[in-house]
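Why should sequence recovery work at all? Because a backbone constrains its sequence more than one might expect. Tight turns favour small or flexible residues, buried strands favour hydrophobic ones, and helices have their own preferences. The token representation captures these environments compactly. In the example below, the structure is given first.
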């Protein structure tokens, strides 16, 4: 059998077995019911500025937890952006008090400002305006500079509906929006250029309440709050599956309220792996009006796959390189064989003598070298596999330890 065919076959079989090992799994929320019984801890409480002000949306950047207060739907008052430190140091590395107010900006009217998300690749905050007083803002999204909180551009998505909420899916570099009632409360996927690429269907009959608040995206899940204000049924959090195109859970919320007579959860965002923050507007029995940010950590599956992917890609490259090397060797051997044949044609006696001296032994030696080469390559690949497996285990332990401290650090 041709040596190149044998080596290619052996390498191909080993690569197939290696790639069949179930190493490629994503880190994700553990189940459809991850928020059942979630314990929420208050990390921020601040006053609402305007007489009719409501904090409508929230997002997080690398340095800040950012809230947007809609001052009024009845006027053109400027809305309020507040940024709170999410770390123990600021963006320049200076020590700060975590969750203290870092910035407060009033420079734009954001309509109802019902949804927010952050794109770290563009360093933009995207704001879903929802109810619009200006006709040209119907179905539009504001793109805001995350460093200066100034308006960069406006993206028109549609004239047929307004947009309730928006979330950024960093892994796939895309956005998920939810339309208002005019669009059947549908979820739609936008690409990085804000073009609708997929409609996930209408969800007007799925809400526990009578409307929807802002959303966030985590893996395969779209997570949002239903509007249940004054319904007397309490607060809920809903989870929708992108792949299954359906609502998979609606879990009751138990925020640690004291002397609160009315509350309205408005927005949710992901702080880190399995850690979430929610902003809630509160009316107290003594007449005070504030908003609170609560955090929780839900069950999460950790299975880092990047190292495995890299290893598999490297092995494929190694195999490809081995094949290229073998093909080059075969080409050289072919030329040598052609030259030898030519010489034998010119000197048949010499050829016969050579065959008598070692013709049978040459095949055995070549076969041995072939097997040793295949074994060496297979051993190298298996060693890489074990190395990747050990690295994944170390990553798993490291991430678990970090997550154990999530309640203190997120």
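From this structural description, the recovered sequence reads:
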């Amino acid at each position: 059998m041709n040596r190149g065919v044998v080596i290619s076959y052996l390498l191909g079989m080993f690569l197939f077995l290696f790639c069949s090992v179930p190493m490629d799994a994503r880190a994700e929320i553990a189940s459809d019911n991850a928020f059942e019984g979630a314990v929420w801890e208050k990390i921020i409480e601040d006053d609402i500025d305007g007489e009719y002000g409501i904090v409508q949306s929230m997002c997080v950047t690398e340095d800040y937890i950012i809230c947007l207060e809609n001052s009024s739907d009845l006027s053109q008052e400027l809305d309020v952006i507040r940024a709170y430190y999410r770390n123990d140091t600021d963006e320049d590395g200076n020590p700060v008090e975590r969750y203290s107010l870092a910035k407060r900006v009033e420079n734009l009217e954001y309509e109802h400002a019902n949804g927010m998300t952050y794109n770290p690749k563009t360093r933009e905050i995207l704001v879903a305006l929802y109810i619009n007083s200006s006709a040209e803002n119907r179905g539009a999204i504001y793109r805001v500079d995350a460093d200066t909180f100034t308006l960069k551009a406006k993206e028109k998505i549609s004239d047929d509906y307004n947009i309730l909420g928006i979330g950024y899916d960093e892994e796939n570099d895309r956005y998920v929006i939810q339309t208002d009632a005019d669009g059947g409360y549908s979820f739609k996927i936008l690409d990085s250029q804000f073009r609708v690429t997929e409609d996930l269907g209408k969800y007007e009959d799925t809400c526990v309440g009578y409307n929807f608040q802002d959303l966030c995206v985590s893996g395969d899940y779209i997570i949002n709050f239903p509007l249940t204000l004054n319904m007397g049924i309490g607060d809920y959090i809903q989870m929708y599956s992108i792949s299954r195109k359906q609502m998979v859970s609606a879990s009751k919320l138990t925020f640690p309220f004291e002397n609160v007579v009315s509350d309205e959860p408005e927005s949710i965002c992901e702080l880190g792996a399995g850690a979430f923050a929610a902003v809630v507007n509160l009316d107290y029995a003594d007449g005070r009006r504030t908003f609170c940010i609560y955090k929780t950590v839900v069950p999460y599956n950790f299975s880092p796959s990047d190292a495995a992917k890299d290893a598999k890609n490297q092995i494929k490259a190694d195999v490809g390189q081995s094949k290229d090397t073998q093909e080059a060797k075969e080409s050289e051997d072919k030329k040598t064989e052609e030259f030898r044949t030519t010489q034998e044609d010119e000197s048949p006696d010499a050829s016969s003598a050579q065959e008598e001296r070692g013709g049978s032994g040459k095949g055995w030696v070549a076969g041995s070298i072939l097997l040793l080469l295949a074994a060496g390559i297979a051993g190298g690949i298996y060693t890489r596999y074990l190395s990747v497996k050990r690295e994944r285990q170390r990553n798993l332990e490291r991430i678990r330890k970090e997550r154990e401290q999530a309640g203190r650090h997120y």
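A few observations help interpret the result. Confidence is low (pLDDT under 50) at residues 15-25, 306-325, 342-360.
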